[in-house]
Amino acid sequence: MSIVITGNPGVGKHTIAKELAEKTQLEIVDINQLAKDAQLFEKNDESNDVDTEKLKEILKEKISDKCIIVGHLAPYVLDKDKVGIVVILRRNPYDLIKVYNKRGYSDEKSRENAGSEILGVIAYDAKNHFEEKTVQIDNSEKEIQEILNKIESILAGKNKNEEVDWLELVTKNNDLKKFFVD
Ligand SMILES: Nc1ncnc2c1ncn2[C@@H]1O[C@H](COP(=O)(O)OP(=O)(O)OP(=O)(O)O)[C@@H](O)[C@H]1O
Ligand SMILES: [Mg+2]
Asked: Can you name the residues that pair with 86 across neighbouring β-strands?
């Protein structure tokens, strides 16, 4: 059964996928890497606009039921019936900003990506698209091992879905402006 790991940039998809691949001996299929290799990203700006139709075709050749498919584009380029389970990783937007700073993202790009996580854009699209195959896990300030254990339980059929509400957190902290207003 293939495992999809998705979520907004910086939530920990590759970190978790690598460890999971070692444990399970499943191969990683990296959606962004495939798109880059095929030169499907638009080159002119910082955004991640990609030709999803071409990427869908490429992925069809690459995926099997013995792989871990990683990427924030998963909901837009994978068929529901071709995947086993879909793990949506979430992460506290304050932690994400730290990740983006380390990566050297511009302020605009950081806020855009953190804002997208606050609103749960990828989570929403993944749930809509993959429906009952999705399970959401909060990767904020967690040991990687804890996340791996949760994924193993999910694979064993247990329901480990976690709710997060960053909008409530950010509102309570009076930080909406920090993320959404120039
Ligand atoms: N559970 C965790 N504990 C501590 N650090 C973590 C954890 N998960 C991820 N990280 C760290 O967070 C950063 C972002 O993780 P990672 O690169 O795996 O995210 P990603 O979702 O693959 O991002 P992208 O979408 O941009 O590829 C990395 O520096 C990674 O080491
Ligand atoms: Mg990554």
From this structure: 4, 134
0.85 exceeded by pTM? yes
pLDDT value at 41 more than 80: yes
- Indicate the number of domains in the chain: 1
Is 97 inside a domain boundary?
no
**Ligand 1 pocket residues where CB is under 6 Å:** 7, 9-15, 72, 99, 139, 142, 144
Q: At what angle do helices 107-119 and 121-130 cross, to 10 degrees?
A: 40
pLDDT in tens, 4-23: 999 999 999 999 999 999 99
CA atoms lying within 13 Å on the CB side of residue 46: 9
The residue whose two tokens read 């009076």 is 174
Q: Identify any residues that bridge with 90 across adjacent strands, giving them in sequence order.
A: 138
Instruction: Say which CATH number the domain at 145 has.
Output: 3.40.50.300
- Quick one: which atom of ligand 1 is closest to the CA of 11? 21
Q: Does residue 126 lie in a domain region?
A: yes
Which range marks the domain in which residue 17 is found? 3-92+120-164
Ligand nearest to the Cα of 19, by number = 1
